[in-house]
Task: structure prediction
Amino acid sequence: MRYMRIFLWGCTVTLLATSLGWAQNHNPVVEAHVVVATDAVHANSPLKLAVLAQVAAGYHINDHKPTLDYLIPTELKVEHSDQFVVKSVVYPKGTSKKFEFSDVPLSVYEGPVVVGAVLQAGKEMPAGTYTLKAKFAYQACNDHACLPPTNVPLAVSIRIVPPNVPLKPVEPDVFRRIKFE
Amino acid sequence: MEEQTPIDNTPEESKAPESSPSESPPAPKSKILVGALLAMVLVVGLYYVNRYWIEPAVRAQTKGDGSHPVAPPFSLTDITGQPLNLSDYKGKVVVLDFWATWCGPCRIEIPGFIELQKRYASQGFTMIGISMDDSPEPVVDFTKELQMNYPVAVGNDRLGELYGGMPGLPTTFVIGRDGRIYAKHVGATDASVFETEIKELLAASPADEATDFHRAGQVFAEDKVELGDPATIDSEVPGIDLTKLTADQKEAFKKLLAGQQCTCGCKFTLLKCRQVDRNCSTSKKLAKDQMDAFLKVNSTGVATK
Result:
């Protein structure tokens, strides 16, 4: 009876692993979304946001400053708008890794990737909700093959409130880890 | 010095009392038995999976059974300005390499291809490189840097789709003297694999299909040759076969897509998104769903007439 239980457990684990592997093959290599550091923003003030990306297991994307000239860098491209002006973008430090296809170790991002940005909200912005659009541009490879350069479209709603309304922090742990200057 | 206590994972019920050394503890034995049983099940399982599933699939693909499709013809201009038509190489063995300068695994294959071109060009073989870069500049620089000795052209999405889409680069096709595709290799592949296949195809007759061709190297699921359908590739709504529709239905379907917003974030209508970004999987799926619904409604209408 006990062996049967162990055997059934083994089968369950195997089935789960197989289905997870299948799911991985059919999901996008990179998923990303945006988080703003506060629940609302004041006009004429800086605001911080973070792009939280997840690179699928087995794949990597290039560092923002790639090791070799020919590699396509990872980039956060914020759509130009009159409401929000990009002041700076902070990319994480890549991990140095050796691949079969390269003689030298390459600086890459794997797993979770957090890109931060500081923007300035416009001076005369009336209270209300605005949509900020951006793209997370990357080019992914595994050890044997590469996928074409891709953009993940991003959009986030930003609520502008009067200056007397206090702002509440959102996901402070995420923003604490980003090295904003 | 304090000694570290070993972790005992043995289940309580199988633990033997320490005071009875004559009885051997059954716990390790049971674990070995379970392990052996699981290993046996795994081995037997793998054997049957291989015998009834993987092997027949591989055999169907690697052995000639009339299943080697004819390579889609194309006409491009190579990076030196010369015309590059696949039909000009009829009667030769061709290795057609889809690659890009930004792709590390693609770059590492190139010296091997240069060597193959040196060795076999005089025997009726040619390499052809189709770069999937956006512009020719980096390609020209790279071909000069590596002194590539075979024709290279910048390809396009349509050509990639005709060859079944590019799940990843490099994707390389081995084409026989008869113009059929005998193998597809996705990902960096050792030059020796191509060499084996080239030799076999050079020995085959240009008039007949090489029915006894055997693929070299490892075979992966994505190596299956599945060509694109020109009816969907060259459609007015790329990716959607409109050939089943009448002229009026075609217009009505395009109007339907033009009235809907694509949800991929492109800000275009579904029709426009399909036309400007044929790689957009969101608009492709939405348009396909619309076509299924459209055909259902229209075929019902035809049937009741």
